[in-house]
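Sequence, structure tokens reproduced for reference:
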Amino acid sequence: MRSMRPDRWACRGAAAILVLLTSGVLRGADRPQWGEPGGRNQVSAEVGLPDRFDPETGLNVRWVVPLGTETWSTPVVSQGRILIGTNNGAPKDPRVKGDRGILVCLREDDGGFCWQLVVPKVTEDIYKDWPRVGMVSAATVEGDRVYMVSNRNEVMCLDLKGQADGNDGPYRDEGRHMVPAGTEPLEIAAQDADILWLYDIPAELGIWAHDSAHCSVLVHKDLLYVNTSSGLNGEHNRVRVPDKPSLIVLDKHTGRLVAQENEGIGPRIFHSTWSSPALGTVEDEPVVFFCGGDGVCYGFDPPRPSDAPVDLHCRWRFDCDPEAPKENVHQYIRNRQVSPSNIKSMPVFHEGRVYITAGGDIWWGKKEANLLCVDASGQGDVTRRGRLWSYAMGEHCCTTPSVWEGLVFVGDCGRMVHCVDAATGRAYWTHETDGEIWASTLVADGKVYVATRRGGVWVFAADREKRLLHHVRLDSPIAGTPVAANGVLYVATMRKLYAFQSGASAPPAQ
């Protein structure tokens, strides 16, 4: 590995000293949403993170907290609280029984339980809310407000304090919302979430999620940008509601519908709408980048104030697979040679470029995946002129790339980690891990953290030369992305949330 430049060390040291002098303790920063604010880049400025850890011995383990039995969400950290979605497989409240979606709020210092959002599962059609997967969407925190999409595809604004400061409104029916229809409501207790407002996407727009709601809400000024998770029916032969939007915009104060996309994405959704929007500044103007279930990345102008919902203006459009079929796309379901592409990851905006992973659907499409780098400037269809480079990966890819100091790191479903030149798309190195990679990479403190579906955590040096620093197997598969906040690395497996910190020494695992 090449040595780090002295000026880079100096900058890191100065930043650490500044934090120490101003706060009295060496403390980093919260991570209140998925990825960097707006741009979605999963890169952190944290320093002093451990490059090795082992729950079996307690090495660099601060604490470990049990979750449910399936955890697909990524944790977020804000104001001394950690929020993560899971299921009710290991109930924290004896009143709550059976399969439920759970958003749990924990204390950052010791992992102690604060409160939880409980949402009944949709039971009439498993393809609207897959059994036992719990709450999949990652929360977004701004101030004392938590923006969340539930397993029932409801957009919610929650109080970060829960019911600790009383039941604030205007929403007051939490007790009834926690139980299935026709069931006696629960009495609201201190350990329950406080819903401030709720926008029910199925009730208001007729859009049910496919399998699960997958959305990390993007907040920009007074607006929320939300992926509707629109997708196929249970027979996988048509989109449930092809005339409905894939992206909507809500007022963050009230939940009122402000705008929606009207680009005709619906009929071309090959499987589902998995991607959450990102924000970039292009030619001094904000642009919301959104990857549809049709394999196209769109750039939208933020809507202007209006009394009634308006259509978003699409200023920029890039087709990630222009040679793929575009009509009657569902005839290609189960075709592993020829099919449309879709996008399961988020677009990453970084220094005037958009980085995207796209390719055949992991369950129903062709065995192909590419990492794309696109010029974010210009307007209209930029498919031909906008592509800067394309890099072929393994069979499929579900993960969002991380862009750091001229390098792009990404994992794929073929077990491979890739380090690619951000300028040219040329691979510097690859490494085969122990399992499929569904969690996105995290770059922090000069290291790349990678987690696999076999429960492995791999730590590499974030460099052009491959150097494996550590590998450890945790208790169960990992789908959520590792997160760094305030000097601590958080890794959620299906069953547990681990807090790793340099110098910590929890009791060895039993």
User: Anything to note?
Assistant: The first strand starts at residue 43 and ends at 44.
